[in-house]
Write a structure and sequence with these properties.
The complex is a heterodimer of chains A (about 350) and B (about 180). Chain A has one domain. Helix content of chain A is about 70%, strand content about 5%. Chain A has 13 helices and two strands; from the N terminus they run αααββαααααααααα. Chain B has about 180 residues and is of the alpha+beta class. In chain B, about 25% of the residues lie in helices and about 15% in strands. The chains are: A mainly alpha (about 350), B alpha+beta (about 180). At the A-B interface, α1 of A face α2 of B.
Chain lengths: ~350, ~180
């Protein structure tokens, strides 16, 4: 008697996909550190790390090795459990977001007597964006717990700054996305991408203001300059991870880079067509080339889009100085939220008019 | 007050407009500047492989000179040690014996000649003080080391290679500066 049939093929497929995505995000995060140093160097008329391997491409390995070899220090007065939990949470929340992002069109898998289409997405849930928001707001806990458990005034201050910043920018971010969701009518990432593919027009055309608000909020969410007040090296001595050393510090830094990768992926998905290749008819080519090459190509194009946004993240970081805290809060509450609200109302009105068969 | 140049600009203290408060336009301008720098030629010199030439008046490590026949020029008069503001030079004089004429040019020579490179300020006053043209500053600098003791350079470190026996090494030690004179 079978009470429950388990689809082992589906399970292994998803497991493999999860492992692949985690590996890819880790490798990309590693090379983001390298890219950050290179971009910083190039913007400052230097050439950056070039000693480890050709063009210094082994530098991230050397950095990682260094972090692993460092002494693990847990402060005497810290709360040990929370102290260890902090970086774990930061890393976990950074990784979890990648589950709902569609990385490409479906692969056609035909081997060992199994014939199935493998979608390059871990979970196509119908509340994809809500899920991302949920997980991202959990990311505050990584910072808060880290800052609190260190039992250090500056860490706590920085953690408080970081937490209030993230919470205030989440508002504007959510509002900017509501306008987008009114257009798409779906919260599923996959559906949003497919709509953009069939329309042939990316959402950035309909929602330029929404995208602008979203990207600013994404900078704030990732604690990147100009909003890196949670870290603020020169005021707060490195911020919430001041007491951390070795790989626990590495986890915090890594989590930041993974966050950057994921938010670039989200931006590309929501506003820049996801894995859609511009001026390229995917459906026709799936028919002629087969599904797998097209899927790989779309995945590659998606990675290129992500890489561009990561570059923008770095470009902005090495251009703009940090905001003062009151400026940060003013920008968030007095400018971005009203802007997002106006954007939402206008979009809502236009959508309503369109539904009532107005032509414009 | 009369302005000294015509480049003075009055400071604009007008309150920021709403658009300016969004910072977007100015941020965009700044990003264009950094992007321009991204593609500029880099100023970096990849040091161990690539070296920048020293200026012709560079004062580096000291060299004890020899004459054309390979004899040491120094006569241990001590003028360099007296001239030295950092008191980095120590020497001991000795008398030239019979049969040593091919080694030392003068009848008196420096048996011990030491410069403490940690004290030396590379001012070049020893070079100026020397009546025998026996010491001058070269175009290299003292390499880093782990022990203080190694920074006290003796005669074997300072003496220039023999121009008769090792002409190539001698030419290398003389360097660019020697060619000009």
């Amino acid at each position: 008697m079978t009470l429950l049939t388990i689809d082992w093929v589906l399970l292994t497929e998803k497991l493999l996909l999860v492992v692949a995505i985690v590996m890819i995000s880790l490798v990309i995060a590693m090379y983001e550190t390298y890219a950050e140093r290179k971009v910083a160097a190039y913007i400052q008329d230097r050439i950056g790390p070039d000693r480890a391997g050709p063009f210094g491409i082994l530098q991230p390995m050397a950095d990682g090795l260094k972090l692993f070899m460092k002494e693990e220090i847990i402060p005497n007065t810290s709360n040990k459990l929370l102290f260890i939990l902090g970086p774990c949470l930061a890393m976990l929340t950074a990784m979890m977001t990648s589950a709902v992002i569609p990385w490409g069109s479906a692969l056609h898998f035909k081997m060992f007597g199994i014939d199935r289409m493998v979608t390059l997405q871990v979970a196509d849930i119908n509340i994809g964006i809500l899920y991302i928001f949920g997980v991202v707001s959990l990311g505050v806990y990584g910072i808060m717990i880290g800052g609190w458990a260190s039992n250090n005034k500056f860490s706590l201050l920085a953690a408080l700054r970081g937490a209030s910043q993230m919470i205030s920018y989440e508002l504007a971010m959510g509002l900017s996305l509501i306008a987008l969701l009114m257009l798409t009518g779906s919260l599923s990432m996959k559906t949003i991408v497919e709509q953009q593919m069939t329309q042939g027009v990316w959402n950035i055309v309909y929602q330029p203001l929404g995208f602008l608000i979203f990207i600013v909020c994404a900078f704030a969410e990732c604690n990147r300059t100009p909003f890196d007040l949670a870290e603020a090296e020169n005021e707060l001595n490195f911020g919430y991870h001041q007491e951390y050393s070795s790989m626990k510090l590495g986890f915090y830094l890594f989590a930041e880079y993974i966050n950057m990768f994921i938010s670039s992926a989200v931006m590309a998905t929501l506003f820049f067509g996801g894995y859609d290749i511009p001026f390229f008819d995917e459906a026709a080519h799936i028919a002629s080339w087969g599904a797998t090459p097209v899927a790989l190509l779309t995945g590659f194009v998606f990675l290129i889009k992500i890489a561009f946004f990561i570059f923008v993240f770095m470009w902005v970081r090495w251009t703009i100085p940090r905001f003062r805290y009151d400026q940060l809060m003013n920008l968030g509450w007095k400018n971005l939220i009203p802007l997002a609200l106006v954007n939402m109302v206008i979009t809502g009105a236009l959508v309503l008019l369109k539904q009532n068969h107005w032509h414009f | 007050m009369q302005a000294l140049t015509n480049r003075a600009k009055p400071v604009d203290r007008a309150p920021m407009t709403w658009v300016e408060k969004l910072y977007l336009w100015n941020i965009l301008k700044g990003m264009l500047i950094t992007l321009r720098h991204f593609f500029k030629r880099k100023a970096t010199v990849k040091y161990p492989e690539q070296k920048r030439p020293f200026s012709p008046v560079f004062r580096g490590l000291h060299i004890l000179n020899r004459d054309e026949q390979g004899r040491e020029r120094c006569t241990a008069c001590g003028l360099c040690a007296v001239a030295c503001p950092a008191e980095a030079i120590t020497m001991e004089a000795a008398e030239r014996k019979k049969g040593e004429e091919n080694l030392y040019r003068e009848e008196k020579y420096a048996a011990r000649y030491e410069i403490n490179m940690l004290r030396c300020i590379f001012c070049g006053l020893c070079e100026e003080a020397c009546p025998k043209d026996a010491i001058y500053l070269s175009e290299t600098f003292a390499p880093a080391n782990f022990q203080r003791q190694t920074f006290i350079y003796g005669k074997q470190d300072l003496l220039i290679p023999d121009p008769v026996k090792e002409p190539e090494l001698y030419a290398k030690a003389v360097g660019e500066r020697g060619k000009k004179n």
